[in-house]
Amino acid sequence: MGRRITYLLSRYPAVSHTFFLTEIRALRRQGFDVDIISINDCDRPIEQLTHEEREERQATFYLKSSGPAAILAALWRALSSAPLRFLRAAGYAARLSRGAPRALLYRMFYLVEAAVVVERMRRAGSNHLHVHFGSEVATVALLAKQLAPLRLSLTIHGSDEFYDVSEYHLGEKMAAADFVFCISHYTASQLMRLSEYRHWRKISVAPLGVDIDKFRPGPPRDATDPVTILCVGRLNAAKGLHVLLTALARLAPRFPDLRLTLVGDGEERRSLEALVDALGIRQRVHFAGVVNQDNILPWYQQADIFCLPSFAEGVPVVLMEAMATGLPCVTSRITGIPELIDDGVDGVLVTAADADALAAALAELIASPEKRRRIGTAARHKIATRYHLDANFEALGRAFQRQLARLDRPGVAEPELSGLPETVSPSPAFHLISAPPLSAVAPVWKAEPPSPGDASVPPTIAEAKPRLEVETHG
């Protein structure tokens, strides 16, 4: 049996956080024994889950669904086995509330949940807790570490965690964590801003990735077909979709056949539908609703442009997916997105909330199939060489192994480090540094998967050239 890690997640599986599933399954393939605790139930009925999601649901411990008896038993065990430690944890939870009655109530709920997490880890024989996001779920983990001598690591995405620092206690979480992964240098910079210099050495930048074999270009689009813009994501205020609809209305007179497809659902759907009617573009906009991972690929392959005009993001996986399928992407110049997209090379960046700039960028791509092809080709090249799922998750697994081995040697002094984040990089076995020429990763406009040896597709991991890259960034 491999190294055991407990993942604590707010909701799993979840259609808006598919990277949880891909990461966990990738770590298991590397020999890790990953136990999952989800505070909330899965976000969909079982009949709407993919096969992989059903397997994960079956193997996941759902905290709030474990029942009052199990929750009370865990709370009693925490109190009776180490009463002073429990009281100190309760006092710590109270201090986190900063005297606000509502916050105090929630911190006490989190303490109860933390007791259940500790009990589940005890039963599973696990002493390492890993959490995605620095929000409330990480507060539960922070309190769990107060209740028991467990190890704690975090993956921080941004940017929501950075908007209410006092609510999310990021400074305390950085101090308590044994190590931290950030999905971008932007995310790392914000954690560095919020924490003491002595904790910076805990940070590693570990980019996410996507499966370029799954997310591949589709059959050719006829140049005479109406241009379709695609957006995939939750229909919430942070995605900037009202700006996209406004830009679409401004483009309508020039491009009478232009269409927009919105894949996803959320609290802003009614508002967006009302704006569609007010702008007179109902016939141009299709609300497709939620689409799971098994069915999402055709939506990318049947589009001409991908647009994500967000106000706040980490580094969106949907952008990586779209780029991998050879779609030219238009998105906001915010947070970690410029680390993914080089403006004008493998995507187009615009000022957030600027409908005129968004409309102008979209118009340029709509009017130029050749520019769409060129940017889409470069986009897939970028994903194949820097955001390859297997390569980046292999590197993440090695980083986990290295950090866990370090924690197993508590008497060994840590090496003198610069205090600056290190980039988690793929090993030479993944052969990705000498990137193939763009012609080798041009979109393959075929309905069927390419045959082996087809020189027009990205090389597989085994076929590409060697890569060895270890960087330190400030």
Strand-helix topology:
Layout: E1 4-11, H1 18-29, E2 33-40, H2 51-59, E3 61-62, H3 68-81, H4 83-96, H5 101-124, E4 128-132, H6 136-147, E5 151-156, H7 165-168, H8 170-176, E6 179-182, H9 185-194, E7 203-205, E8 228-232, H10 241-251, E9 259-263, H11 269-279, E10 285-289, H12 297-301, E11 305-308, H13 317-324, E12 329-332, H14 337-340, E13 348-350, H15 355-366, H16 369-386, H17 389-407, E14 422-423
Parallel strand pairs: 1-2, 1-4, 2-3, 4-5, 5-6, 6-7, 7-14, 8-9, 8-11, 9-10, 11-12, 12-13
Helix pairs in contact: 1-17, 3-4, 3-5, 4-5, 4-6, 5-6, 10-11, 10-15
Could you walk me through the main structural features you see in this protein, from its secondary elements to its overall organization?
This protein is 41% helix and 14% strand. By secondary structure, it is an alpha/beta fold. It has 2 domains: 4-177, 3-Layer(aba) Sandwich (Rossmann fold), CATH 3.40.50; 228-385, Rossmann fold (3-Layer(aba) Sandwich), CATH 3.40.50. Helix 13 links the parallel strand 11 and strand 12. The two termini are 37 Å apart.
Question: What labels would you give this structure?
Answer:
474 residues; alpha/beta; Rossmann fold; six-stranded parallel β-sheet
Number of beta-strand segments = 14
Examine the secondary-structure arrangement and name the CATH architecture of the largest domain.
Answer: 3-Layer(aba) Sandwich
Helix content: 40-55%
Task: List the total number of helices.
Answer: 17
Strand content: 5-15%
Low-confidence stretches: 429-474
Major β-sheet annotation: 8 strands, parallel
Distance between the termini: 37 Å
Q: On the 0-100 scale, what is the average pLDDT?
A: 89
Q: In order across it, which strands form the biggest sheet? A: 3-2-1-4-5-6-7-14
The CATH C-level name of the largest domain is Alpha Beta
Name the shape in a single word: elongated
- The CATH topology of the largest domain turns out to be Rossmann fold
Instruction: Provide the number of structural domains.
Output: 2
